[in-house]
Amino acid sequence: MAWFFGRAAGGGAPRRSRVEAADAELERVRAALDEAERREADATREFAALETQVVGAEAGEEGLDAEHEEAADAVEQTRAAVATLVSDSASADKDRATWSARVDALALSLGRKDGAGALLAANPPGVLGSVAALLAVEPGYEDAVAAALGPLADAVAVESLEAAVDALRLLRDDDAGRASLVVGTPLTPSAVELVEPPTGSTTEVGPRPAVDVVSAAGPAAAALRALLAGVVVVDDLAQARALVAASPQVTAVTRAGDLLGGTRAAGGSAAAPSVLHLQAALDEARTRADDAAARGERARFALAGARHACDDAQRRYDETLDRLHESDAALAAVAEQLGTLGSAQRAARGEAERHRATLAQAADRREADEAELEALARRLELAEAEPGESAEAVEVASAARDRAQGDATAARAAETEARLALRTSEERARAVAGRAQGLARAAATERAAREKAAARARERTAQAQVAAQVRDDADRALVALARSIERAAEERAAAEDARAAHAAGLDSVRADADRLAGELRDLTDVAHRDEVARAQQLARLEQLEQRATDELGTDPQALVEEFGPHRMVPSAVEPGETPGEADTTAVEHRPYVRDEQEKRLRQAERALARIGTVNPLALEEFAALEERHRFLTEQLADLKKSRQDLLQIVEDIDERVQQVFAEAYRDTAAMFEQVFPTLFPGGEGRLVLTDPSDLLTTGIDVEARPAGKKVKRLSLLSGGERSLTAVAFLVSIFKARPSPFLIMDEVEAALDDVNLGRLLEIFRELQTHSQLIVITHQKRTMEVADALYGVTMRGDGVTTVISQRMREHAEA
Q1: I need a surface site. Which of 48, 708, 775, 800 has the fewest CB within 10 A?
Q2: How far lies 633's CA from each of 437, 620, 646, 768, in Å?
């Protein structure tokens, strides 16, 4: 009984300690459970708030999508307009250059070399100009009027008899040759007798008095009309013969330039166009050149506005794109926060569940310990009632055992507390780390968005300043342009009034022809577009039918019948409402609208893309992607550095090329100005850069002006002059950058003796610093050579090379 008593007494203390430890653990677990439930409630509340923010952001993103699409359409339209205007401007510049060259050529052709030319060049008082310049002839009647005027077509008009006398005296004093003059006198009714053509002799066009096909203004108008009085323009010689036979006092001229009168006749074939032809062509070329210049100015003015509109559209496009990117970044940040809060919520819920399970287990252990404690207490009472060993020995043993058990219990409790605290700290650390990472990414995104916004603000400020300056310059240009347009309109109106009456019929016919041709082209284009559209629609229908059969395994007719646009479409589920919450019996149906359904499709695709898929291998893929990202980042940094190095090398090469080209051009241009007068005594030549501001893309124009000529273009020079100009350019290059050997192949073949002598002087200069190898058939060229080499045929028919030292032979 003594042993039983000791065991009962010693087993009660550990049970009491375990009950007390269980009570303490219950209190701690209840506190941890309350904390986990509180964190779960906070995470749930923040999650709901962020979901509301996501719904608002998505609603705003729909408007941004529409605005971005409108900006993209505007950019495409403005770019197409700019391209069209650039093409129009280039076409106008090309036409202007063509007609300007024609004006220069015709002006040179009309240059006078006789007394009339000297008189026009001196321009004394009273000289009105050439008759061809004062007369305006209807198109097609130039030959007839030139034949009617005869030698006077090349005459000079003066305003009075006094002016004619002064002009003749000037020609005689200066020994400038002879000239025919038309003296301006008042026109009396008896001075002009217009002869009516005889009846019965008209054709489709009919005879016309010569004075009706010309117009003139000024003091010489009366004299010119008097010269053409009695002259009738007919279609052919048959009409002319009939008209002169009926009225011998009449002079008939054909539109081909044949003249027939009662006492004289002239005609035949013209070897060259008349002065009136050349003058009419010159007037037409000037009109075309002015029209092309005006079209070019209008195109450039419209191009400036179109480019400004294009820049505005591009700026709106960039702004909408940046705002869309910011919205996507904000949505991504919110989605990341939602993920972080969801993880925190799930972690708190899991921790609460674990604490509840731990609390239930601790309560069960406490109840079991209390039951054992009560049983031990009853056994202890029974043991104390029986006799046993001495109380002192029992008490000593019990105290030692109690101390040992107490120490063990305390150690186990401390271990349990440490493990629970460690697990709790690990869970909290993981939750805090996830939230900190999410907040750090959100902060980085916000900082990047602010930097972009600040950069855009600075850019908009600079663009606003530039726009203000452009607006001021445009206002000043518009004022100057308005004044120029007013002056041009007045001058053009004055010039066009004289031609409008004669060209009205032709313009009307041409307008009708152009209108009918345009209508025909439009109808043809419409028919072609309709055919193409019909073929495209048929092909698309066939593709859709094949796609429906391949992907859905459904007959196209059945698919159209069940899901075609004639079927009603159920309304979309409102945001925040799940399909299960909606009353299926109260779903609203509406007609099919393609734009609305495409918009729903884009929304669903974006939502599906944001949701993503569950990937159980995300950690392994993340590690692999992180390693690849690190590798690609290093490679990208290396590529950027290489690109910077290459760009620096390109910049250095460009600078060196520009420097070398500038030096070579400067030296060559200086040498060309020295060499050209040697080949063209009294002439002037120079080299001109087409674009001095950009030496990498500029071209070089060669201006050559031989003595006594006023031409600038090489195309207006003769063959020999062009050859000498090319030789001068080559020699300038050789002198600017000397070479040890120079090879020339029959460069003097087309030159006469005078030009050949000048070229040989150039050869002698080149011999001082280079060795010349010249292939030639000219004897004079061979005479200046140091050695001659040739190929001849021997008597046996075999060719052989011979040589001769000219300098040694000359010295001998």
Answers
A1: 708
A2: 21, 20, 20, 63
**Contact in structure between 597 and 569 (CB atoms under 8 Å):** yes
Beta 136-137 vs 214-215: how paired, if at all? antiparallel
Q: Locate the DSSP E strands across 496-564.
A: none
Residue of 204 and 660 predicted with greater confidence:
660
Name residues whose C-beta falls within 8 Å of residue 159's C-beta, 6 or more positions apart in sequence. 126, 128, 184, 218, 219, 220
pLDDT digits (tens, 9 = 90+) for 772-803: 888 988 888 888 888 888 888 877 778 888 88
Contact, 392 vs 35, CB < 8 A? no
Residue 213 identity: V
Q: Are 723 and 751 in contact (CB under 8 A)?
A: yes
pTM check: above 0.85: no
With beta carbons less than 8 A apart as the criterion, state whether 108 and 282 touch: no
**Dist CA 128 CA 130 (whole Å):** 7
Buried b or exposed e, range 552-572, using 16+ CB within 10 angstroms: eeeebeeebeeeeeeeebeee
Torsion of CA 352, 355, 357, 361, to 10 degrees: -170
Contact present, 157 and 134 (Cβ < 8 Å) = yes
Q: Is 10 exposed, middle or buried (0-12, 13-18, 19+ CB in 10 A)?
A: buried
Would you state the structure tokens that stand for residue 240, as one six-digit string? 């002319």
Mean pLDDT of 102-116: 59
Q: Tens digit of pLDDT for each residue in 400-427?
A: 777 777 777 777 777 777 777 777 777 7
- Round the average pLDDT of the chain to a whole number and report it: 75
Q: How many CB atoms lie within 10 A of CB 807?
A: 10
More confidently predicted of 667 and 255: 667
The answer to whether 754 and 681 are in contact (CB under 8 A) is no
Q: What is the pLDDT of residue 59?
A: 54
| 157: β partners | 129, 182
| 29 and 421 Cβ atoms separated by less than 8 Å | no
Between CA 490 and CA 646 the distance in angstroms is 59
- Beta-carbon contacts of 572 under 8 Å, excluding residues fewer than 6 positions away, are 600
- Nearest to 323, CA basis, from 104, 503, 68, 14: 68
Strand-strand pairing, 127-130 and 136-137 = unpaired
**DSSP secondary structure letters along 4-35:** HHHHHHHHHHHHHHHHHHHHHHHHHHHHHHHH
The residue that leads in pLDDT, 805 or 345, is 805
CA dihedral (759, 762, 764, 766) in degrees, to 10, reads: -130
Chain centroid to Cα 759, Å, comes to 50
Burial class (CB in 10 A: 0-12, 13-18, 19+), 26: middle
Q: Which distant-in-sequence residues (6+ apart) come within 8 Å of 320 by Cβ?
A: 64, 67, 68, 71
Residues 282 and 428: their CA atoms lie apart, in Å, by 96
**By the 8 A CB rule, do 114 and 177 touch?**
yes
Within 8 A by CB and 6+ apart from 373, the residues are 12, 15, 16, 19
Nearest to 153 by CA among 260, 275, 334: 275
Q: How far apart are CA 302 and CA 78, in angstroms?
A: 12
Mutual angle of helices 221-228 and 142-149, in 10-degree steps: 90
Going from the C-alpha of 34 to that of each of 234, 345, 346, 378, 436, the distances in angstroms are: 121, 14, 15, 38, 23
Letter string b/e over residues 34-64, b meaning 16 or more CB atoms within 10 A of that residue's CB = ebbbebbeebbebbeebeeebeeebeebeeb
Return the DSSP state at 257: S
Sign of the four-CA dihedral 86, 88, 89, 91: positive
pLDDT value, residue 640: 93
